[in-house]
Specification:
The protein has helices at 47-52, 62-67, 71-76, 80-84, 96-102, 128-138, 156-176, 196-209, 225-235, 253-261, 271-277, 309-313, 316-324, 328-355, 358-368, and strands spanning 7-13, 16-23, 26-30, 32-34, 58-61, 90-93, 106-108, 113-116, 123-126, 142-144, 185-190, 213-216, 245-247, 266-268, 280-283, 286-289. It is α/β, with parallel strands linked by helices. A hairpin with a 2-residue loop joins strand 15 (280-283) and strand 16 (286-289). Helix 6 (128-138) crosses helix 7, helix 10 runs antiparallel to helix 15 and helix 13 (316-324) packs across helix 14. The chain is globular and about 60 Å long. Bound molecules: 2,6-diamino-3H-quinazolin-4-one and zinc ion. Zinc ion is lined by residues 302-303, 306, 308, 310-311, 337, 340.
């Protein structure tokens, strides 16, 4: 059957796109930031908090949920949406990246990647077919193919061989879940390291197989920022025009705005949630390190330009106190704010694209975050 187009472009500002992605659990207004909920929870906040800060779609992780509590257990509980009580769209990463980043002990072969659980050392094999089966058990709205993300700094020969494996695995994922087979979308992941020609080769091979969306993988993995921006500028606009484009694991506020101006629609990053827990808060005036003594008696809101629950309700003095006292509430209030900042940033980008003012938004973010530049 002819698949209806799942992605609509509503406005443009240069390469930037204002779009709308339809999924089985609702539509996603893009550009969009996706909070990371690795093991079925966005750390320190609940689904009501996520709705309150404007989250549309969140991330889960195949590797972690397969190991604990188990994808079949989640399926028996009605799938990940029901299990975690999140009724909006969910995207799950395929696990390949997590196997590489969490495990020294792993063996990579044509069949798949063999690894030991970081929880109990038990042995497992992820094949393309297996990661599709896991993501179908989880019931995620967007599934990612199994790919190899070459370590940052890998040489060109290694990257060239690796992208061939990634393409063969992507083809096996598509064969395991053909277009039209169900309501879940399957996205391909472009690799090719910091080499434009290898990136174009990876994309051509994936586009020849055909996916509902395309991700740029293999970035924000230790390469120089200038290399990431060079690949982003080269590949963002070259990704298929009428499909959603996802930049995996990125990034800082300036990275996100730079991604948007290069045609990217979807982003995920642990920075807002992870840095909330170590007291680094993102504001309209740049980063605020809430543990600094200067905030001891500061009655002002964390960010006067933010209307989140944390900024509406508490002072910097109180947020600093909670953090220094290692109160659990500190994690929740800091995370609510940081997520709201990243979600408001992409909401502002959606408005800016419609108004043709993306350049002004980028200049504002570059000024607030000078340390983020290339
Ligand atoms: N920076 C990242 C983050 C997540 C990734 N996930 C997959 N599957 N592949 C990559 O290359 C990633 C890169
Ligand atoms: Zn706030």
């Amino acid at each position: 059957m002819e698949r209806q187009n799942i992605f609509t472009i509503l406005a443009r500002d240069g390469h930037a796109r204002r779009g709308r992605l339809s999924t089985a659990h609702g539509t996603v207004e893009t550009p969009v930031f996706m909070p990371v909920g690795t093991v079925g929870s966005v750390k320190a906040v609940c689904p009501a908090d996520l709705k309150d800060v404007g989250a549309q779609i969140i991330l889960g992780n195949t590797y972690h949920l397969y190991l604990r509590p188990g994808d079949e257990l989640v399926a028996r509980r009605g799938g990940l949406h029901r299990f975690m009580r999140w009724d909006g769209p969910i995207l799950t990463d395929s696990g390949g990246f997590q196997v590489f980043s969490l495990n020294e002990l792993r063996r990579l072969g044509e069949e798949g990647v063999e690894f030991r659980s970081h929880l109990d050392g038990s042995r497992h094999l992820f094949t393309p077919e297996k990661v599709v089966s896991i993501q179908r058990n989880l019931g995620s709205d967007v599934m990612m193919v199994l790919d190899e993300c070459p370590p940052g700094g890998s040489d060109r020969d290694y990257v060239a061989r690796s992208l061939g494996l990634t393409t063969r695995w992507a083809r096996r994922c598509r064969e395991a879940y053909p277009a039209g087979a169900g309501e879940q979308h399957l996205f391909g992941i472009v690799q090719g390291g910091i080499y434009e020609d290898l990136r174009e080769e990876s994309l051509a091979q994936l586009a020849g197989i055909g996916f509902e969306g395309y991700a740029l993988g293999g970035l924000s993995v230790g390469e120089k920022k200038a290399d990431m921006y060079r690949i982003l500028a080269h590949m963002g606009p070259r990704l298929p025009e009428n499909a959603p484009r996802y930049l995996m694991g990125v990034g800082t506020p300036l990275d996100i705005v730079t991604g948007i101006e290069n045609g990217i629609d979807m982003f995920d990053c642990v920075l807002p949630t992870r840095n909330a827990r170590n007291g680094t808060l993102y504001t309209s005036q740049g980063k605020v390190n809430i543990k600094r003594a200067e905030f001891r008696e500061d009655d002002s809101p964390l960010d006067p330009a933010c209307s989140c629950y944390t900024c509406r309700t508490f002072s910097r003095a109180y947020l600093r106190h909670l953090y220094v006292a290692k109160e659990i509430l500190s994690f929740r209030l800091n995370t609510i704010h940081n997520l709201r900042y990243f979600l408001d940033l992409t909401a502002r980008a959606r408005t800016a694209i419609e108004a043709g003012t993306m350049a002004a938004l980028k200049a504002e973010i570059a000024a607030a975050y000078p340390e983020d530049g290339a």
